[in-house]
Write a structure and sequence with these properties.
The complex is a heterodimer of chains A (about 200) and B (about 170). Chain A is built from five helices and seven strands. In chain B, helix 2 packs across helix 3. The chains are: A alpha/beta (about 200), B mainly alpha (about 170).
Chain lengths: ~200, ~170
């Protein structure tokens, strides 16, 4: 009897490992930025041309940085949740509009001048927000995706929870699900709000 | 030493490619993609890096847009005179060790690096133990002298096999 238990045990161990492996999303790469200060940047605001925003402006607040673009399909899935969440007024959400023009495969951004790209970005991003609702305290324009690289963005949407001291405490890769919001983001945000 | 070697390589490449390069006037910036030394280093570095969008492709081979952006950043870092480890650190700081095809040896990757050897060592020890135990387990035969005699008698009585008809 014991003879059969050993291979059976080995087989079950293998099954457990395979089951864990199959249920993990290989696209979710843990970010080394969690626990580190949010990289500084200074980008122009979507709604106020000529005015810039930088993460230091949010010092003393717990806030979300949400990376989005109008061409991003998953953003569309996530958006109603963000709109509803913003109506509850839980946390300020800053939108990082990521490569609005360059990320869209249909447009050859190399042919556009910077001024043309900026105005096209404003037009497209603005139209998308007025159509789907604007959950953002403000949005900033990362047209060439450089700030995205500093934040380790590799698939839009991504969302960062940043504490009062400007440290990234959590990163959501892919759309925020109601479950992630209720079970991870909100409890952590409450805890962070209590920190001095 | 490394820097010296790099300088020598640069010089050698310049000497080799010099006559072939288009005539450029002093003070004119060479377009990025046309600097063969930078491009060669870019390819060497980015072959060691993983593209995060299509994870089984290297940064050198991927046509994903993020890979293009990252190659642009790496090219810029090369032009800024950064060393290969500095460039890799730049990417690891943003995307984690996952971007490296050759993960560093550190406590979290010990299982990855040494796990296979540990497994093999365990298997070898198991095999040795098993063989030793089996050697002692071969039991001497229980045949008594009387049994042996009757068996031999039976064998001797067995009629010879009939010959093949052919």
């Amino acid at each position: 009897m014991k003879r059969f238990l050993i291979p059976l045990g080995l087989f079950l161990t293998l099954v457990v490992f395979l089951a864990i492996g199959l249920n993990r999303d290989p696209h979710e790469v843990p970010s080394p930025l969690v626990g580190k200060p949010a990289p500084a940047f200074s980008l122009e605001k979507l709604a106020e041309p000529g005015k810039t925003f930088s993460p230091a402006d949010m010092q003393g607040q717990v806030w979300l940085l949400n990376v989005w673009a109008s061409w991003c399909v998953s953003c569309r899935a996530e958006h109603p949740l963000l709109v509803a969440f913003s109506k509850q007024g839980g946390l300020p959400i800053v939108g990082l509009n990521y490569k609005e023009v360059r990320g869209d495969g249909g447009i050859d951004a190399k042919k556009l001048s910077l001024a043309d790209e900026t105005s096209l970005t404003r037009q497209r991003a603005g139209a998308w927000l007025s159509q789907h609702g604007d959950p953002y305290t403000l949005s900033v324009l990362d047209m060439d995706g450089r700030v995205g690289i500093d934040y380790g963005v590799y698939g839009v949407p991504e969302t960062y929870l940043i504490d009062k001291k400007g440290v990234i405490r959590f990163k959501q890769i892919g759309p925020i699900t109601p479950e992630a919001l209720e079970k991870k983001i909100l409890p952590l945000a409450r805890q962070l709000a209590a920190e001095s | 030493m490394k820097a010296l070697r790099r300088t020598l390589t640069t010089c050698a490449t310049a000497l080799l490619l010099g006559p072939l390069a288009p005539v450029t006037h002093a003070g004119e910036a060479t377009p990025m993609a046309e600097n063969p030394v930078v491009e060669a280093r870019l390819i060497a570095i980015s072959e060691e890096l993983r593209c995060l969008v299509c994870q089984n492709e290297s940064l050198a081979g991927s046509r994903a847009e993020l890979a293009e952006d990252l190659r642009r950043e790496v090219r810029k870092l090369i032009q800024d005179g950064k060393t290969d480890p500095e460039i890799k650190d730049y990417l690891v700081a943003r995307y984690g060790d996952f971007v490296l095809y050759r993960p560093p040896v550190k406590p979290t990757t010990w299982l990855l690096w040494f796990g296979p050897f540990a497994l093999m060592g365990g298997a070898v020890i198991g095999l040795i133990l098993y063989l030793r135990r089996r050697a002692t387990r071969v039991e001497p035969s229980h045949l008594s002298a009387a049994d042996r005699a009757s068996a031999e008698a039976l064998l001797a009585d067995t009629p010879p096999r009939p010959k093949d008809p052919a």
